[in-house]
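The following block was generated as part of the benchmark described in Methods. Ligand: calcium ion.
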Amino acid sequence: MVVVLAGGVGAARFLRGVVRVVAPEDVTVVGNTGDDIDIYGVHVCPDLDIVTYMLAGVFDEERGFGIIGDTHGVMDELAKSGADTWFALGDRDLGVCAGRTKLLGDGAELHRVAQGIAQHFGVRVRMLPMTDAPVHTVVETQQGEMHFQEYWVRHRANIPALSVRLEGVEAALPAPGVLDAIARADAVLLAPSNPVVSIGTILQVPGIREALVETRAPVVGVSPIVGGRVMRGMADKLLPVVGAEVSAPGVAALYVDFLDGFVVDEQDAARAAEVEALGMRVAVTNTVMDTPERAEALAKETLALAQAVRA
Ligand code: GDP
Ligand code: CA
């Protein structure tokens, strides 16, 4: 069984490759819920849903969120009523969120709801949120504190960030199955996701980081930095906030206590020795997942590195 710690789009692309190499039933996703937001009366889980939609083959690649071909009747009506619709949700996407909200309101735990949504979309991987507890990332900026989605979607990360914290994490427990999956895995993979607000939030849930240190499974990550830059997202703005350089060794150093191997993009080959100097094995390859075939090749190389560090 392979465990993949996952954020949004970068992780979803990677997972699309992983399930071409490993049977989906043997893949456990531990997904970030720090991006979750309650808005328009529904509970949105952007990263869990991005992964589900991508694996189901219905992800809207062009917009970078939501379901392909979705309509936006609800948002149009909301806007007419004078509501601020800065956080766009398509009609089907909103339906998924409304279904989740109803089940949560009836007392269901998020990990059961997430698994149900994945199954409903024909996705066979095991989808676990990092925690069932309500948590969300707060970004402190020069204009005050705001929800991560406000910082990212409303302000496009154009306001200088001063600090980032995960509200509610002290009282959070890993979702049932998370620690056990990490302990029993054949390999644990860190998808190329945001090191601060995706992987970083997962690592803050009490017990998860310790489980990664203690597991007998090889733990291998894929660099989200390509050619010294981010491919998408705002990690370049947030890495300096946590004192990390925007580079492959800068990211690897954040995981140095538990990472056995790191896949570095060929464009960053010159920095590979610095990653190795942190005490981990390195594989250098093309990590740009512009096609499912490329994602599959990257998944194979990542799993091969996991095999190699285990041997
Ligand atoms: P997240 O997955 O929710 O953290 O957010 P994004 O998917 O928007 O981006 C997170 C990180 O993934 C960014 O730092 C991107 O550079 C990285 N990323 C996205 N696509 C790729 C890819 O094809 N290859 C690699 N190596 N990194 C990627
Ligand atoms: Ca995300």
